[in-house]
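Teaching note: in complex prediction, the entire set of molecules is handled at once rather than each chain in isolation. The prompt given to students was simply: 'Predict the structure of this complex.' The entities are:
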Amino acid sequence: MNPTHSKRERLTAAAATLVHQKGFSNTTLADVAEMAKLPLGGIYYYFKTKDALAEAVTERRVSDIDALLEKLDRLPTPQARLKALVNVWAEDREIDALYGCPIGSLCYELAKGRGPLSTVASRLFTHLLAWSEAQFGLAGFTRKQAKTHALHLISALQGISLVANALGDSDAILSETRFLTGWLDTLSRTQKNGGHA
Amino acid sequence: MNPTHSKRERLTAAAATLVHQKGFSNTTLADVAEMAKLPLGGIYYYFKTKDALAEAVTERRVSDIDALLEKLDRLPTPQARLKALVNVWAEDREIDALYGCPIGSLCYELAKGRGPLSTVASRLFTHLLAWSEAQFGLAGFTRKQAKTHALHLISALQGISLVANALGDSDAILSETRFLTGWLDTLSRTQKNGGHA
DNA sequence: GTCTATATGGAGATAGAC
DNA sequence: GTCTATCTCCATATAGAC
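The expected output is the structure of the full assembly:
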């Protein structure tokens, strides 16, 4: 509605895309302005500094995660939800092999040197981990087991994105997501009271 | 011996440390010169460009990996070697939680945008994966299983480094390395002809 | 609110004395 | 081979007209 919000939205969207593809340091405000079809100086009405733009991009990623998890919450069982999360990586394998996971690569870059920004970035993982941990809990695992399994799952997804990106090989992601799906199945079978949400 | 090599060595060592701590983009040649106790201009006698320095850092990491794997090769069984690899991450957990895995964070950064440099960086993972795959093969797995397991292992180690770095939590690395060690034990037990190198 | 023009600083890279 | 001084470019950021 408000044209102000529309431009701000275009800026964060353009920045999110460019940061994913080229990294934050390699992305110039001129790049962002061009993709958002705004003059360079126009950015500063919406964002005082480049770091403020990075923060907006991070917030946007947090929203993406929250929206995804809400969608997954509609599935009937925790096992189905966890497998659906894994499946998101399988579906995004081509773009992740090209540019890495948008969350992981952002966190890794923002963690270097910048104090305040890295704090915001860490929220991306606390959300994912808390949700996964909750699912494992609902599936009947103890709190400790749920925590360990959630950490393993999210780490594996982040790691395969990084490795596949380094190798430029999207099939690696497919291999690992199949492995993780199998692991989740095995866990369900091992459980006594297997997964009634 | 040659004082030239000594300075070149000091430069790559300083660059490797700084790139790990602050990232490649955030590291200036002035930083490197200062840490290596050389004047800024002196760098250009050894490295024509900043990218050439990045390449030297990457080569250095490749050497580190090769030396590590050679050391692990002296262990009696493939299971012992794989568990020892995991243990390296457990031992390095404090520094990895602070700055991320030196290999993974370097690859992620160099993969963004730079064509030629990312190729060199990918060698870091091809070495690690080939070695791990060989160990799983020696442990009695089929080629396909060995490939899958190697990818899972290296991904998990990379992923936990990334997540622990984002959270600033070295205990996360400890949790995951314990999990992986347990997984390797389970694999051995599942195998019929368990692991005679 | 939006745009143009410009200031400022910093980082990579070079020239050239020694 | 080594060091000092400097150049140039470019990216962030600002000033100020409209």
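Point out the following to students. Residues 3-4, 7, 38-42, 45 of chain A lie near DNA strand C (CB under 10 Å from a C1'). The mean pLDDT of chain A is 94.
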